[in-house]
Amino acid sequence: MLDAVVSLLYPPRCLGCQAFVHTDEPFCRDCARAVKPITSPLCLRCGIPFSPQSGLDHECGLCHKVPPLFRHARAWAHYEYGAGALQPVSAAIQQFKYQRNLGVGKLLAHLAATHFPFGATHYDVIIPVPLHLDRLRWRGFNQSLLLSRAIGHAHQIRVDPFLLARSRPTVPQVQLTEKERLENVKGAFSVPKPEHVQHRQVLLVDDVYTSGATVTECTKALLHAEARAVDVFTVARAV
Fold it and tell me: Interhelix angle for 88-98 vs 102-114, to 10°?
């Protein structure tokens, strides 16, 4: 009854365009058609999707040339970075992060937990990509932590947001070039208590994988603290 009253007073809206939708549908019909879940074929390491004509899963050229520090990276859906066409997953993440819409965040967290691809893998801990304290104060929450908690609850994996720290503030990555992204986050992460990640199998969670600069720096810090392996999961992949 309470759900019915809430739905009447605050009708659910599409995560992409904010049009009214039925309670069990995160996206309207048009936005749902524009959502692009990542399926095979894809890169075995970084998870970037290939065209359907590319055959079986295989390493992309970049991962073959410069193997990433993380073991595997995967995402639920992908969108075109900088494209002018309808990008509902990107729009939803923007609402979550920059408009501080926790209702959208709750639905994205549910999608992340539902489409989590590493279900058969045993992880000792989930670590969300941390925010600097200044950014956390402005936003009021860490979006990666909310996603991590949904995944951890659904798959019975411990979540610890204090094992990785952002040791200095960085500017938002969204308007930076790939080279600027690498410089922006270089050395920005640290592990306060290395003994708590030593020999652990870690799942690193963030909202979007674009250039991979942020998750690479996080992985570097975790491996320096002697984590056994690091996998990466994000809700979306910008390609």
Answer: 130
Q: Do you know the residue count of the chain?
A: 239
Block residue for tokens 């809206």: 13
Q: Is the dihedral of CA 67, 213, 151, 224 positive or negative?
A: positive
Span 118-127, pLDDT tens digits: 987 899 999 9
pLDDT in tens, 75-117: 999 998 776 667 999 999 999 999 999 989 999 999 999 999 9
Cα–Cα dist 232/236, whole Å: 12
* Percent helix, strand and coil across the chain, each to the nearest 5: 40, 20, 45
Sign of CA dihedral 28, 53, 238, 145: positive
Secondary structure element (H or E) that encloses residue 180, with its range: helix 178-185
Q: Which amino acid is at 134?
A: D
Helix (H) / strand (E) element for 95: namely helix 88-98
Output the pTM of the full model: 0.91
